[in-house]
Amino acid sequence: MSDPIDRKGLKSRFWERKSLDQMSPKEWEALCDGCGKCCLNKLEDEDTGEVALTRVACRLFDDTTCRCAQYDIRHQFVPECIVLKPSNLDTHAYWMPETCAYRLLWQGKPLPEWHPLITGDPESVHAAGVSMRLRTVPEFEIDQDDWEDHIIEEPI
Ligand code: SF4
Ligand code: SF4
């Protein structure tokens, strides 16, 4: 499958030489590995602040492609969908998936070896078993009170 993210023409290992707020919009977008885990509904423990992922996916998530089905116009349907930026990463990193490239770099960690920027292959995230491809249930099928029955260990 062709890469839905344009990663062509980027400087080799730019993420090791630039801070997140120095990246161009194209470099920033290219950091996304396409795992789809940020499109899962999460449960947050009010007392501990712990975040659990569920396999209950946002209504716009298509788990065959592992992508948002309406990315460009998603806010018409899901106004609460976050637009992640260097300026709001401090606020959101705590709930981002453990393997998310934005969270890893924010934590000062390297990208994993299966990341498409390293392999040159958008399929490598799926082959590594860390994506949500064919692993979700749509939120309109599951009552919110039952989401805790669908808590998953993060595929890492
Ligand atoms: S969790 Fe991070 S790397 Fe995975 S799809 Fe979301 S933004 Fe991209
Ligand atoms: S609107 Fe699209 S990008 Fe946002 S959480 Fe839902 S599926 Fe993911």
UniProtKB/TrEMBL annotation:
<dbReference type="InterPro" id="IPR008228">
    <property type="entry name" value="UCP006173"/>
</dbReference>
<dbReference type="InterPro" id="IPR005358">
    <property type="entry name" value="Puta_zinc/iron-chelating_dom"/>
</dbReference>
<dbReference type="Pfam" id="PF03692">
    <property type="entry name" value="CxxCxxCC"/>
</dbReference>
<comment type="similarity">
    <text>Belongs to the UPF0260 family.</text>
</comment>
<protein>
    <recommendedName>
        <fullName>UPF0260 protein ATO3_22110</fullName>
    </recommendedName>
</protein>
